[in-house]
Amino acid sequence: MPRTILIPNGDNIVHTFSDKEFQNRQELLRIHMAQNNIDSVIFTSIHGINYYSDFLYCSFGRPYALVVTQDKTTSVTANIDGGQPWRRTFGENLVYTDWQKDSFFYALQQLVSNGDKIGIEYDHITKERLDKLQAAFNKSNFIDISVDRMKMRSIKSDEEIAHIIQGANVCDIGGKSGAVSARQIGNHGGGTNGDYGDRAGIFSTF
Predict the structure, then answer these.
(1) What is the pLDDT of residues 76-109, one digit of tens each?
(2) Which of 40, 65, 66, 121 would give a disulfide with 112, using CB separation of 3.0 to 4.6 Å?
(3) What is the pTM of this model?
(4) What is the pLDDT of residue 157?
(5) Cα–Cα distance between 192 and 194 in angstroms, integer?
(6) What is the C-alpha to C-alpha distance for residues 197 and 178, in angstroms, rounded to an integer?
(7) Which among 65, 52, 134 is positioned nearest to 95, based on CA atoms?
């Protein structure tokens, strides 16, 4: 059975942000890579993968990655997800199967050259997976990308700011609604419940 497959199933989703937003994020990363002589970046964290591709994984004990080179961006995902990552990734997708051990690292070898200078997230990857990654790319040098990635992510675009404001407004509505409901429920009882109802009024200022 094949160790990697393609599952181009369905149409790409409407992403959280515009295509231009994701293009800008990836372009800024590639500029940073060029300035620091980094050939490839292998993201493994949920936030790293999601920020650059809009794909949000649920591990179920399996590793996931997003490989960024100067030429393309590719999510590396488990076969258990089928064609969903292909539909949700802003970029390409490569699926690894469970038919042979460590096919995840085999999939990475199809996208990254052994000998590249590779950026990885030291604040996320486990010791076991780091050892296997270094064995798979025994001619490569590894560099921590996590701090620089965080700094790039902390500078918000106009589109991100608008998204944050909209989300905060929705939370305000939900917070006020929850505080009113808690007070009403608490005040219908006595003792502790009544006290809780009074304390819930604190949240009405949200």
Answers:
(1) 999 999 999 999 999 999 999 999 999 999 999 9
(2) 40
(3) 0.84
(4) 93
(5) 5
(6) 11
(7) 65
Length of the chain (residues)? 206
What is the DSSP secondary-structure string of 46-65?
A: HHHHHHHH------TT---E
Q: 135-150, pLDDT tens digit by residue?
A: 999 999 999 999 999 9
Per the structure block, which two tokens stand in for 95? 């699926």
Are 196 and 182 within 8 A, CB to CB? Answer: yes
Hey, what are 127's tokens? 């010791």
CA distances from 199 to 171, 186, 202 (A): 19, 9, 6
Alpha-carbon distance of 6 to 59, in angstroms, equals 19
Tokens of 186: 């608490």
Tokens coding 9: 């199933």
Block residue for tokens 């690292």: 105
Query: From CA 148, how far away is CA 64, in angstroms rounded?
Result: 21
Residue linked to tokens 């929850």: 178
Sign for the pseudo-dihedral over CA of 39, 126, 5, 110:
positive
